[in-house]
Each structure stands twice: as C-alpha cells, then as structure tokens.
Write a structure and sequence with these properties.
5 helices; mainly alpha; rod-shaped; 2 domains; coiled coil
Length: 133
C-alpha cells in the first residue's frame, strides 16, 4: 500500500512537473487534466498553488485578493470622505477663529479708545478739584 501511495505521489509529481513545463503538447495537457486525483496528491504548498492555477487560474494564497482589494478601496474611500469632512470643519473653524480674532481686535481697540479717553478725562477732574480748593 505504501509503495502504491509512493508510486501515485511520484506519478502526480511527475505530471505536475510535466504540466508546468511549457513544451507540452495539447494532448499531454488534456491527459494530465483528466487524472486530477493523481495530479493533486502532493500536499506541499507549491503543488497546491499549481493545483489552484490549473483549477481556477488563481493562486490559493491570492483567492481573497479581489475581496481584500475591494475592502481596502472602500476603507480608503471612507478615509478620504472623512478627510474631506474634516477639511470642511477646519475651514469653518478657521473662519470662526478669524471672525473671533476680528471681534477681539475691535473690542481691544474700543477698550484702548475708552482707556485713552478716560486717561484724558482724569487729569481734567484733578485740575478741577485743585481749582475748587
């Protein structure tokens, strides 16, 4: 039984190598594909990849590639959308900040004018008090 398994495995390995070589005729390719149980006996990853290439023309390591790419694209789109929302909010906050800075500047100018007017008014009061005495 062990020698038969070994024979099947070596036969499958030989067929895999033959299929992988580029100079096979179409007939040889078809005969290999007609005996998939022999072709796919080996459990090594290289043979699994070859099996997938023969069956689906897709590497088993890459089977989820399209789905993974779609998930990444969706995530990127979501991040870009959030980035745009954040840019809009930053623009709005900058506008509010500029408005607030203008208001503060105007209030500071008003305070300065009031303090200036007050300082000019104080000496007159003192001089009035001295004149009364």
């Amino acid at each position: 039984m062990s020698s038969q398994s070994s024979k099947v495995s070596s036969n499958a390995s030989r067929q895999i190598k033959a299929f992988a070589s580029a100079d096979l005729s179409e007939k040889e390719n078809l005969s290999i594909l007609s005996e998939p149980q022999l072709l796919f006996e080996s459990q090594s990853i290289g043979d699994s990849i070859l099996k997938a290439q023969i069956e689906n023309q897709v590497c088993p390591l890459c089977k989820g590639h399209d789905q993974y790419t779609k998930v990444l694209q969706d995530a990127l789109r979501e991040v870009l959308d959030q980035n745009e929302v954040l840019r809009t909010k930053v623009f709005e906050l900058e506008a509010m900040l500029n408005k607030t800075e203008d208001e503060v500047r105007n209030k500071n100018e008003l305070i300065f004018e009031l303090e200036s007017a007050l300082s000019k008014a104080k000496p007159k009061r003192k001089s009035m008090k001295k004149n009364k005495s």
